[in-house]
Automatic annotation (TrEMBL):
Domain Polymerase nucleotidyl transferase: 39-94
GO molecular function: nucleotidyltransferase activity
Organism classification: Bacteria, Candidatus Desantisiibacteriota
Source superkingdom: Bacteria
Pfam families cross-referenced by the UniProt entry: NTP_transf_2
Protein name: Polymerase nucleotidyl transferase domain-containing protein
Length: 140
């Protein structure tokens, strides 16, 4: 069970659904992920296959502004020495191999040091992830 004290979201309960305390938001989040194959399955797979320190959902799904054509934006933090582009390709290929479909996931993979540096830059992009992103795995 993962609990984000900022958003109040509990993730990973028996049904694999989100519990936010906001019934409208819960219905929206649970419906959209059941329609794909389940965000919990995706996160569980990434955690077991890729061993990240943290996974944060951001973008339109993270702020409940998604459309039918929206992709799933994930910030993945992992200790690695691989080049940035190689990390992203590795995650995408792994997801495609596992699920056998072109799944609409756009991962960004940062090392812990890169993420700390990015937070220090104080860009709008990073501030948005920090304020609206949902921690799906790991510590805040």
């Amino acid at each position: 069970m993962i609990f984000n004290r900022h958003t109040g979201i509990r993730f990973g309960n028996r049904s694999g659904c989100y519990k936010t305390g906001d019934k409208k938001q819960e219905k929206s989040m649970n419906t959209k992920f059941k329609g794909l194959f389940g965000l919990k399955k995706l996160v569980d797979f990434i955690v077991s296959d890729y061993k990240p320190e943290r996974i944060i959902l951001f973008g339109s799904y993270g702020s409940s502004a998604e459309k039918k054509s929206s992709d799933i934006d994930l910030l993945i933090i992992k200790k690695t020495h691989k080049r940035f582009v190689d990390r992203v390709v590795e995650v995408i290929q792994s997801i495609r191999r596992e699920f056998g479909i072109k799944y609409p996931v756009e991962p960004l993979v940062y090392t812990p040091e890169e993420w700390e540096w990015a937070k220090g830059m104080n860009s709008i992009f990073v501030r948005t992830i920090l304020s609206k992103g949902i921690v799906l795995y790991g510590k805040e």
